[in-house]
Every structure is written in C-alpha cells, then in structure tokens.
Amino acid sequence: MPALSALPFLKPVHLRSPRSSAGGQRRHTLPASEFRCLSPEDAVSVFEIEREAFISVSGDCPLHLDEIRHFLNLCPELSLGWFEEGRLVAFIIGSLWDQERLSQAALTLHKPQGTAVHIHVLAVHRTFRQQGKGSILMWRYLQYLRCLPFARRALLMCEDFLVPFYQKCGFEVLGPCEVTVGELAFIEMQHPVRGHAFMRRNSGC
Fold first, then answer.
1. Which of 154, 175, 183, 202 has its CA 20 to 30 A from that of 143?
2. What is the phi-psi region of residue 130: left when phi exceeds 0, alpha when psi lies from -120 to 50, beta otherwise?
3. What is the CATH architecture of 33-200?
4. What angle, 0 to 180 degrees and rounded to 10, lies between the N-to-C axes of helices 43-58 and 65-74?
5. For 13, what's the count of Cα atoms within 13 Å in the CB-facing half-sphere?
6. Where are the domains of the chain?
7. Local structure of 33: helix, strand or coil
8. Does this UniProt record's set of keywords contain Kinase (predicted)?
9. Residues assigned a catalytic role
10. Span 161-180, pLDDT tens digits
11. What are the CB-based long-range contacts (under 8 Å, 24+) for 172-176?
12. CA distances from 54 to 48, 68, 126 (A)
C-alpha cells in the first residue's frame, strides 16, 4: 500500500460538495483540494511553477526539468503536491541524504540508505501566493515524514530572506551552507523528524 494512502492527514480533503441545480444530486467532480505524492507525469507542471517562482528572484531554478524527472522517478514518495480541482498549485520535492550537512553532491543525488530528507524545493503557483499555502504544505509534509521509519530529520538550504519563513515552520539555522550555485550563497537549516512519539501515536501512522 502506498505510504500516503494510510495517512489520514494526507487523504484528499473535500472542501465543498457541489450539487446540481435539479434534484440535489452530487455532480461528478474532482476533489476540491487534494494532497498526494507527485509522479513523473507531473514534472512539467512542477517545472512551470518553479521556473516562474525562482527565475525572477534568483535567476535560476533549484531543479531543472530533467532533475525533477530524475527525483520523481527515484523517490516520488519524498514529494508532495497540493492540487485544487486537479490543478497543481504547490509542491515540495525531496530526496534522501546520508551526511550530517549538505554538500554540492546533494543537489543531484538520492542516497537510499540516508536518514536525512533533503528538501530541494518548495514552490507555490503565483495565483495562490500570500494565502499561507506554503506553510500548510510544509506542515503536512513534515507530518508525513514523521510516519516514515527511515526519516530522522529534514534538511534544506535557502537564501537569507527565506530564513524567517522556515523558522516559522520549525526549522533551525545550522549556519552557512557549503553549497553554492553561481554567485548565490545559502543558509542551511534543519528540522528534527524523530522525537515526536506522541504525535506519531495520534496521527494514524
């Protein structure tokens, strides 16, 4: 059974129940809001959102289209997409890492024996920003990681201006990251995944 299907907090959330104007019968529609792992078929939609979100700010994307496909083929269970009526509006892509801190190799490698989840990118479609969707998606993603037996912590790197956002999500600063992309420098942050036994007992894991 796929990991997501067993987790009540990641099952589709039906925000409304459309009815036809006559007879009060339900119409067959897509779920108003759904969270699920991404697949390689979602790669183009993912890249379109990511490109618009990052190119104007940083001049480059954390993941290019071939790298998105690479991770969605290797470890789709470490991704999470938020869909509104079938349309992707926000996503996270992660992979496993097996060292204490991130290195340049972490940008492209998935280490199946690793216990750290490297969050490569979180992005929200431009028409859905400033609505708290990024925070909600990250919260759901971290809840999901707590149900994965191999996950011990989440790691990410970000630019300075994003540090307050991730701190509000519960991440702590580890210090400057050794990874650079062109002239960009990053701060490395982490969030513990283990040590939440009560939450796991009450989350359906």
1. 175
2. left
3. 3-Layer(aba) Sandwich (3.40)
4. 130
5. 12
6. 33-200
7. strand
8. no
9. 95, 109, 120, 122, 166
10. 999 999 999 999 999 999 99
11. 174/101
12. 10, 15, 11
What three-state secondary structure class fits 160? helix
| pTM flag (> 0.85) | no
pLDDT tens digits, residue range 73-106? 999 999 999 999 999 999 999 999 999 999 999 9
DSSP states of 118-182: EEEEEEE-GGGTTSSHHHHHHHHHHHHHTT-TT--EEEEEE-GGGHHHHHHTT-EEEEEEEEEET
How long a stretch of residues is the chain? 205
Q: Give every residue of the chain whose pLDDT is below 50, as ranges.
A: 1-2, 4-6, 8-9, 11-24, 26, 195-202
- Starting at the earlier edge strand, list the strands of the sheet with 116-124: 34-36, 79-84, 87-97, 116-124, 153-158, 184-192, 172-181
Pairing of strands 87-97, 116-124: antiparallel
Q: Residue 159 has which token pair?
A: 């630019």
Q: Are 49 and 92 in contact (CB under 8 A)?
A: no
